[in-house]
Amino acid sequence: MSKMHIQLTINGEAQEVLAEPRELLIHVLREKLGVTGPHIGCETSHCGACTVDLNGKSVKSCTVFAAQANGAEITTIEGLGNPDDLHVLQQSFREHHGLQCGFCTPGMITRAHRLLQENPNPTEAEVRFGMAGNLCRCTGYQNIVKSILAAAAEMNAAQEAAE
Amino acid sequence: MIPAAFDYHRPADIASAVALLQELGDDARPLAGGHSLIPMMKLRMASVEYLIDLQDIDELRGISVSDGIVSIGAMTTQHDLITDAALAEAAPIMREAALQIADPQVRYVGTLGGNVANGDPGNDMPGLMQCLDATFTLVGPGGSRDVAARDFYEAAYMTAREDDEILTRVTFAAPTGGYAYEKQKRKIGDYATAAAAIQMTRDDGLCSSAAIALTNLSDVPVFAKAAGAALVGTSCDASAVTAAISAALGEIDPTEDNRGPVEFKLHVAGIVILRAIERAWSRT
Amino acid sequence: MNDQTPPTREERVAGLKGLGTSRKRVEDARFTQGKGNYVDDVKLPGMLFGDFVRSPYAHARVAAIHTEEALKVPGVLAVLTAKDLEPLNLHWMPTLAGDKQMVLADGKVLFQGQEVAFVVATDRYAAADGIAAVEVDYQELPVLTNPFEALESDVVLREDLEGQTEGAHGTRKHHNHIFLWEEGDQEATEQAIGSAEVVAEEMVYYHRTHPCPLETCGCVASMDKVNGKLTLYGTFQAPHVVRTVASLLSGIEEHNIRVISPDIGGGFGNKVGVYPGYVCSIVASIVTGKPVKWIENRMDNLMATAFARDYWMKGKISATREGKITGLACHVVADHGAFDACADPTKFPAGFFHICTGSYDIPVAYVGVDGVYTNKAPGGVAYRCSFRVTEAAYFIERMIEVLAIELGMDAAELRAKNFIKADQFPYTSALGWEYDSGDYHTAWNKALEAVDYPGLRREQAERVEAFKRGETRKLLGIGLTHFTEIVGAGPVKNCDILGMGMFDSCEIRIHPTGSAIARLGTISQGQGHATTFAQILASEIGIPADSITIEEGDTDTAPYGLGTYGSRSTPVAGAATAMAGRKIRAKAQMIAAYLLEVHDDDVEWDVDRFAVKGAPERFKTMAEIAYASYNQAIPGVEPGLEAVSYYDPPNMTYPFGAYICVMEIDVDTGVHEIRQFYALDDCGTRINPMVIEGQVHGGLTEALAIAMGQEIAYDEIGNHKTATFMDFFIPTAWETPNYTTDHTVTPSPHHPIGAKGVGESPNVGGVPAFSNAVHDAFRAFGLRQSHMPHDQWRIWKIAHDLGLHG
């Protein structure tokens, strides 16, 4: 069972890593590439703490072999913003207290980012349904939903201002 | 939860995939979205020596609707089923059902082919395919063959697919009339406690056809032929619906699990069927 | 400078972002950018990975463990078994409850998932392959999963205790019995109940569940043999306790052990105890000379570490015909699993369960708790709870409902009739607690008014009629709860863990330029300590919260403290913070007086400065004072501005609240919908309303999960049935309702700032509110009691047994 070279574009940067085919994407990201934003929560694709954006889709990286991701473009929480230029969602989660222990937060925000890409003006019910692949044990979701709705409004306002 | 080691292959076309399956024998498994198989491998409940990833095979993707025939490539994801406008027009039950499967992340990856080929009695698409009288195309070393969804399932995880075959395509006639996919579950991400798929037509105030299939109420999906027949020719009045439910309940054999005991499941199955019929009939 | 208008007093207060401010959290910057540092993010050079071979059986003799094949697996370096640990006397370890627990299976296994062998390998993949290659010969033994049967059975679970009739908490009356713990006046209680006009009797079961934080437990042990120092990173809610226990167990002197709790991904009580993984990682690091990481997977977490509850509570409550309660008795059969590893203060084997008289003025009461061994995982931890308070609150709030049924009385009215009155505080309960403060009637009336309680009852009555006429299949439940918590453990005179008094601590250093760092003996797991403790301090010492760093979790730098659980951080460490702040201020006053050339008593504190009395334009700000403290020779005053406080609380604090849940129930499917949830909390002085509200939302959602489906279930041969998130119910955003929060403020009279703690209140009060709503929906049809969790089939079963399915 030999190792294989896996090419990934992570947060815009081309990376190559040597891994066994069975290695899970989350482990390769966290252990081999130092991308520790995504976390491991349940390992059975229920909790969404490991969510990354893979070729434009929200994916649970605990249930993807790195080999499957060979050639993929991946965005993680680390790629959404930086200290000098935070993503609107990153600011909004802080502003509306959308996190407590922070363990689910990278997956939450990464998923919310894709949700708003696909549905820029969601209702509360659409946010709740669209975020149902991400579990949080601390917040009861109320402020997460609030954070996402507020971010959507802000992004739409910025869009309108730009037009 | 760490899987055992395996060799990984990513063929570019169906012929290569079939050749690999034939060559590597029953230690090889085709991989679609992987959200059923990979958890089993991580729990070391599925032993796989060779994994044949089908993602590069373009001909396994896509949805087409033409001349009233819906044809869907096996690697089409649940997310694709939800967002495809032509499919929503031709067979809106597909979208209604797909939205009730798993959660958003899983629907981006989970495929129609994987869902129907895996043989997990908890999967939603097999029952729906039986309701729609779909045909599965299987390609193996000897060529291609078609199997009706209603004949495909033998037992839990046992299907008519041979180890060296790949389920490549799902085809069905675009349904007409009313439809419903009714599912009771404990939460998003759960399998059905009970689910029912129904397509029915109305002619002159009476039911002219009805197909009902049930999910996770036996070790295989159940096409409840007699239940549909009980509705045909009626105005779907209370006694006809009761007869249909009673016929359907006669064909299922649920088992106790964390979702509840058998008597509860039988009761809920009846309720789910009732609500599915009511909704479908209201849409005819 | 002179042109600028000086800030007003209000502006100066606002600039501090002190008490009462919804200050945004300082933690969030790193968490929202993926820069948290959790234990699995810790990566040390040469680090190995260890993981367990676990028992597939609930009760079996371990005849042999074959490790040869595992040792041949590439990357596997060692396989530890009890035989390897025995020479170090580490094959067993003491529990927090005075019992002992196997670290690795010593001759037998007592629950499914028990640790049998520890495989050490180069990474987690090699470790998993090694685990698969270990062969264990088991001989199955009869399994006991029912505590009532365990007390009757001939099967001996704990052979190591055979013949020992005295346990840590008195006499054991059977080989599977752990203790009988009693409180109150049994004779007087029996008399009161025996002579009462009305008596309600009921068995109330609070099922077994699990705290299940999103991050599982784990650690990295690193033994530096050159310097003789052990560094232990881990998910520890009580890092100092872990250091002391590690020292006692290993013989390594405590100054040579450094325990670090990095960011913790939720605790909820799961991360209080000491687990075999920690011990094995330390041993493996000593054996290999390399750092060893152990991280539970989710199944391990749900199967082996820290269950909660599992209390069978048989209650009797008596009253006059008018509804005045005259007595309460409760006997509990407590299923502790294979080892008594409850995380309670040492002297309280049933925790603070005897707070079970709740919010009510009950003249006489008695509680007896029998602890029992079964073939289930050990634990009994306080899951978002202060040591069995959740069980107590659930018990009394169910008994009140049952009594209301017995009396034919409205349950809201019955509560109001029996509340301890505001002028009765401080109030001593029949079971010996001194409630510090409360105003229950005010809170209760506010809650009833907020939801239009009479209107809800009218709607409910109409719904029942409509149901009977066949017009609807949905019933309406109104779930009431008025809970009283007991948190902030606790006074050293009666609260300790393994002999260590449950004080807490804060150490403050003011820097010369007027910013500060404060270190505490607690550790945040999401509560936002870095934000809120700075607010306490800002109000005490007049330095803006934004200029104060809060640091916790490193035993080399933080003062000794007992950690964060049982809602004790604000009541104990928060008090220490305020007291240390006051020491700073006392010294600052002397410095200010010297600088202003007046007597100490001639200056007064004003938000962020000391000013000369009667001459407010003459002042020195705290920043100026700090600078002077380091740079100016002040006669009779040591240089520098630092303080430390170890706070031993004089009493617990008693937060309370009134919760009302309105629930729709489909009787045909058992599906529920939360239509409304109103939560009024009184946690005394409110430090950060935003954080409080977040705590309430989260605690209510954990309560929703517990009441409506979450359980640790076993089959009759001890197989764990709920070990993944498919079956262990954690609601998503879709199943979770919006909550309305509200408050009253009744400060604690003995806490320096009057704060009581809030993190656990919503879980303590939420569970009975949800459960009572389910019960209440069926009250008109004759339901008295039905056990949680109220998942779909169990609700359906209620309806079915009441004949509602025709």
Summarize the structure.
The complex is a heterotrimer of chains A (163), B (284) and C (806). By secondary structure, chain A is α+β, with helices and mostly antiparallel strands.
Could you explain the architecture of this structure?
The complex is a heterotrimer of chains A (163), B (284) and C (806). In chain A, strands 2-1-5-3-4 form a five-stranded mixed sheet, sandwiched between helices. The termini of chain A are far apart. Chain A has helices at residues 25-32, 77-80, 88-95, 105-118, 124-130, 142-162, and strands spanning 4-10, 13-19, 51-54, 57-60, 73-75. In chain A, helix 3 crosses helix 6 (142-162). In chain A, a hairpin with a 2-residue loop joins strand 3 and strand 4 (57-60). With 163 residues, chain A is α+β, with helices and mostly antiparallel strands. Chain A folds into two domains: 4-78, Beta-grasp domain (Ubiquitin-like (UB roll), Roll); 88-158, [2Fe-2S]-binding domain (DNA polymerase, domain 1), CATH 1.10.150.120. Chain A is globular and about 50 Å long. Chain B is α+β, with helices and mostly antiparallel strands and 284 residues long. Chain B has three domains: 7-51, Uridine Diphospho-n-acetylenolpyruvylglucosamine Reductase, domain 2 (2-Layer Sandwich); 61-173, Uridine Diphospho-n-acetylenolpyruvylglucosamine Reductase, domain 3, CATH 3.30.465; 178-282, CO dehydrogenase flavoprotein, C-terminal domain (Enolase-like, domain 1), CATH 3.30.390.50. The termini of chain B are far apart. The mean pLDDT of chain B is 97. With 806 residues, chain C is an alpha+beta fold. Chain C is 28% helix and 25% strand. In chain C, the strands form ten sheets. In chain C, strands 3-7-1-16-13-14-15 form a seven-stranded mixed sheet, sandwiched between helices. A five-stranded mixed sheet of chain C has the order 11-19-18-17-12. In chain C, strand 32 and strand 33 (672-682) form a beta hairpin. In chain C, 61% of the residues are buried. The mean pLDDT of chain C is 97. At the A-B interface, strand 4 of A face helix 2 and helix 6 of B.
